[in-house]
Amino acid sequence: MAELTTIGEILSGQGAAVWGVCPFPPREALIPCRGLERLPKESKRVVIAAFPYRTPEQTGRNISRYAVVPDYHRVLREKLSAAGEKLSACFGGTFVPFVDSSPIPEVACAVQAGLGVKGKNGLLITKDYGSYVFLGELVTDRELPCTPPSQGGCLECGRCLAACPGQAISAGGKIDEGHCLSFITQKKGELFPWEEELIRQGGLLWGCDRCQEVCPHNLRAGYTSIPEFTKDLIPRVEREDIRPLCKERAFGFRGPKVLERNWEILFGGEKKDGG
Q1: What CATH number belongs to 2-61+70-140?
Q2: 0.90 cut: is pTM over it?
Q3: Contact at 8 Å (CB) between 76 and 136?
Q4: Which of 1, 14, 155, 275 sits 20 to 30 Å CA-CA off 82?
Q5: Closest alpha carbon to 109 in 140, 67, 85, 78
Q6: Domain ranges in the chain?
Q7: Of residues 100, 128, 209, 273, which has the active-site annotation?
Q8: Neighbours of 123 (CB within 10 A)
Q9: 76: closest CA among 108, 44, 52, 111?
Q10: Active site (annotated) includes residue 100
C-alpha cells in the first residue's frame, strides 16, 4: 500500500530498523502515566518503530549496554518528532511521539505490528538486532492500514530464566520487578543486604544485561548504524563523572545519589582498603 511505503521511507530515513502500524489499543490496556494527556482525542493507530543501539564491546564497561550511547530519550524524541511532522504533511491529522514514558504497551503493540516477538524477559526480539533496540511510537488520529502481526515466539530455551541474577523471570514470562537487578540498580534509598549483594555480583553501576547476553537471538545481533549512537560512547563511569553525566545521559533520570550509592557498594570497599 502506498501509505505504508511512505511511512517506511520516512521512518527508515530517521534510523528505524523495523517499523509497523497497529490499531490503537483498548483504553483498559493503556499504561497510566502523564502521557495519557498527550494522546490525540480520536486515536486510531500506533506507528511503532525499533531503533538499534548495540555497539562493539568496550573494555571496562560498568554500565548497561543501552546506557553507553547518548541519551536515547532525546535522540528518539527528535527523530520521531521529525517523522511525525512529515507524516502529518503527507496524510494530515496528528502524529504524537512517545519515547519510554508512554501510555502505549510498546512490546505488545510492536508484536502486533510485526516488528518481532516477545522474549521471556519481556523484551521485544527483532530478527536482525535481537533485543538490542529502543522502541518509540507515533500515535495518530488517522485511519492508516496496519501491518501483519508477528508469528511464533522466542526459542523457549530458558536461558534468560537461568541467568537472571535475581530469578525475576518466570517460565510464563511474568517479571518480578522487585527482584530484577536492573530495577534494583535504579531503586532510590537504602537497599536490603541481598539487593546490595546482587549489585556486587552483577558488577555494573547501572542496569543488567544478563538475560540479553545469554539469549540465542542476540548472538549475531547487528550493530547500530544510527550516527547518534556511534559516537560519544561512554562505557565506563567513574565516581567523579557521575554528577556531570547525570545531566546528559539516560541513567541520570534517577539522580546522582542512586549511582553514588551503587558506586560505594561496588568499589567503596576497594578504595578504603587501599587508603
Answers
A1: 3.30.980
A2: yes
A3: yes
A4: 1
A5: 140
A6: 2-61+70-140, 159-214+237-270
A7: 100
A8: 24
A9: 52
A10: yes
